Amino acid sequence: MRFATWVSGLLVTVALVVGCSSASSPTPQPTPTPLTKLTVGLGYIPSVQFAQFYRAQQQGYYRDAGLDVTFQSEIDPNLITLVGQGAVDIGIADGTSVIPAVGQGVPIKYAATIYAQFPNVVIAAANGPIKSAADLKGHSLGIPGEYGSSWIMLQALLASAGLTANDVDIRDYPDFGQAVALQQGQVDAATAFRNNEPLQLGQQGFATTQLTIDQITPLPGPGLIVGTATLTTKRDALTAFVTATLRAMDEIAADPQLGLDDTIAQVPDLGSNKDSQLAVLQATVPMWGSPYTQAHGSGAIDQDAWSKSLDFMRGLSGSNIPSSLAVDQLVTEELLP
To answer: pTM for the whole thing?
Structure first.
């Protein structure tokens, strides 16, 4: 009996010791997964036009996807170079800039459509004689210079009416003051972004006619570009970034106010004129979509349209785009949901 009592007491003591030890030991916590850093290029100044990126950042979509995103502002030519070098992981750039860049050996690809409709247009006074591309003949037209997406758009627009730049009086405004020049009567027409200058002029009582290119030559608008090396080293992170961005873009398309609120949270200075900023965003949202993206999903890349654009740009005077350049060297759909 004494032996049994001693054993029983020993077991109770051991149980108490084990119980106390368990109660006092902290529960192991899982080691947090480190976030993947991504540097994202968004153009030369912060703008409500980048609302989908700001919303994905403010709502935690990027962080939830395992990303630590930093935005960097760069002009289009610099951004293309930096993305090609891998100094910027992913950024937004004109599709018409991607074609000559890749043709010159810059290792980038266009990975998601942001502007499914080309944003550059020609504007003229609504009460004036210019109502179509053919009406531009013999008139003065203000441009920032003979380069970039607006210049390519203008050549496509003129070509649709059997005209060239020699048929209009081209006047350069390197400071991008061509819209003001139009308002002041210095020129009869001007290049512009359809979600910017026409709105500003309209708010000042100057109504405009817009000549667009979408139904003439399907030029690729701004979209997300990535370096070919970064595509390999950060493929999963880039896929997560594109998915989160397109989610935010769809939410803003359904309710632009969401985009404005997150834009102001990200860039407080843009909140000084909310009505104007909302008007810009409401004019921007329709350009994110097209019949093609409606059929294939946000961000979808219309490769047939890219093929037509490539042929058009290859035929421009002074073009140095190689005849061997193909669409599959320009775009990739591997990051799309």
So the answer is: 0.87
